[in-house]
């Protein structure tokens, strides 16, 4: 049990590093980066999209090579990629070098989730796995909160912050060697091969994930930049708003409970509606700046809930390949983010923040059209049984 706690703690830390720092801190520090490197909004969007594209490459590599490398080695590759990428960002003298460094940092996120899911499956029984995975997934929100608090202490020193993140990454990578199991896991069943994935509902799931990912880049990549340009927030207030986003993400850790009570379809639609609300509040924040804080909290909760529903539905659709059930919807989210970031940057630069936000709110509405329906929740099943019994009595 002690080893299990160490595994969860190290996996939580790696998730905070790769997602919260290597992947999403770019959006927080983008205003300072743009100023120092003279980046336009379109160039910033392409760099952000490149990091998301690298995630796609990383997760495909994890699918193909994970069974041969084992959890420990693949997780350490994630830590090394994050550490090296963060360190190179701190040293980047211009946009091309920054883009390459961000891509390397983004690669780490693709390496992260599959080995951690596999390690949890080896260390915990079926009943304990959801709780362990839930704790690990909360690492994203923790990393976001940490980056926001660190930025509050070092308002404009983005290079120093990235160097600090790299040093933390080196320590976490060393920890993984001792915390994750050695060797290659034995597969009891090989399951369906990766190229035979024709399951009812999978295409709709990936379409919803793609559109959700595209819409989310409005905040993940340009949220801090919008806070600076529209309500005119100073650096310290932007950092506080980013930490608020992370706190909202912690609230989103209740996804499993919500799905059990209300079902996947309703919970996912409400999460997408909350993302639309967030982007509408960003438009209004130009007039009422204080709306930016609840907007960031709403987005954090909505994104974590939405991605959690996608994960749950994916593993139910692919019970014989849970690694793909987790990875395919997340891959679709990342592809959406890869496409969405440069488009948002181009619209922001060519039109206005209001136009870009309303367009990307419409994309989130489009994601609602793709049903993410699963089995009925226990509460819904009880209602149906009660109605069935009632009509039998009436007949």
TrEMBL record:
Subcellular location: Cell membrane
Main location, first listed in the record: membrane
InterPro entries: MFS (IPR011701), MFS_dom (IPR020846), MFS_Efflux_Transporters (IPR050189), MFS_trans_sf (IPR036259)
Domain Major facilitator superfamily (MFS) profile: 8-379
PROSITE patterns to which the protein is assigned, alphabetical: MFS
Transmembrane portions of the chain: 46-66, 73-92, 98-124, 136-158, 164-180, 201-220, 240-263, 270-287, 293-312, 324-344, 356-376
Annotated membrane topology: Multi-pass membrane protein
Keyword Cell membrane: yes
Protein name, UniProt field: MFS transporter
Keywords from the named record: Cell membrane, Membrane, Transmembrane, Transmembrane helix
Gene3D superfamilies with a match to the protein in the record: MFS general substrate transporter like domains
Organism of provenance: Pseudoroseomonas ludipueritiae
């Amino acid at each position: 049990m002690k080893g299990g706690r160490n595994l969860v703690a190290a996996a939580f830390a790696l998730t905070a590093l790769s997602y919260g720092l290597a992947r999403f801190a770019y959006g927080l520090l983008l205003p300072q980066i743009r100023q120092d490197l003279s980046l336009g909004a379109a160039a910033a969007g392409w760099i952000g999209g490149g990091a998301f594209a690298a995630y796609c490459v990383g997760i495909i590599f994890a699918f193909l090579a994970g069974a041969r490398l084992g959890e420990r080695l693949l997780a350490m590759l994630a830590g090394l990629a994050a550490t090296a990428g963060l360190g190179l960002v701190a040293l980047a003298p211009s946009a091309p070098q920054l883009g390459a460094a961000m891509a390397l940092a983004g690669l780490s996120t693709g390496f992260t989730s599959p080995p951690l899911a596999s390690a949890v499956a080896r260390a915990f029984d079926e009943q304990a796995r959801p709780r362990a995975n839930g704790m690990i997934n909360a690492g994203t929100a923790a990393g976001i909160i940490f980056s926001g608090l660190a930025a509050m202490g070092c308002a404009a020193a983005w290079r120093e912050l990235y160097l600090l993140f790299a040093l933390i990454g080196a320590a976490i990578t060393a920890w993984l060697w001792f915390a994750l199991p050695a060797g290659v896991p034995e597969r009891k069943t090989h399951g369906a091969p990766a190229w035979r994935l024709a399951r009812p509902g999978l295409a709709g799931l990936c379409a919803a994930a793609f559109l959700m990912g595209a819409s989310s880049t409005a905040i993940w990549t340009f949220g801090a930049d919008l806070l600076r340009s529209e309500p005119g927030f100073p650096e310290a207030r932007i950092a506080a708003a980013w930490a608020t986003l992370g706190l909202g993400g912690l609230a989103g850790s209740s996804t499993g409970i919500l799905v059990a009570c209300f079902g996947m379809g309703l919970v996912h639609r409400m999460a997408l509606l909350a993302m639309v609300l967030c982007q509408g509040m960003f438009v209004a924040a130009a007039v009422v700046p204080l709306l930016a804080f609840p907007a960031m909290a709403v987005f954090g909760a909505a994104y974590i809930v939405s991605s959690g529903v996608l994960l749950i539905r994916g593993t139910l659709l692919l019970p014989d390949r849970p690694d793909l059930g987790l990875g395919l919807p997340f891959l679709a989210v990342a592809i959406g983010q890869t496409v969405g970031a440069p488009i948002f940057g181009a619209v922001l630069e060519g039109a206005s923040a209001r136009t870009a936000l309303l367009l990307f709110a419409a994309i989130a509405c489009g994601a609602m059209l793709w049903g993410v329906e699963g089995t009925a929740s226990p509460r819904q099943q009880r209602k149906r049984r009660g109605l069935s019994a009632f009509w039998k009595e009436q007949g």
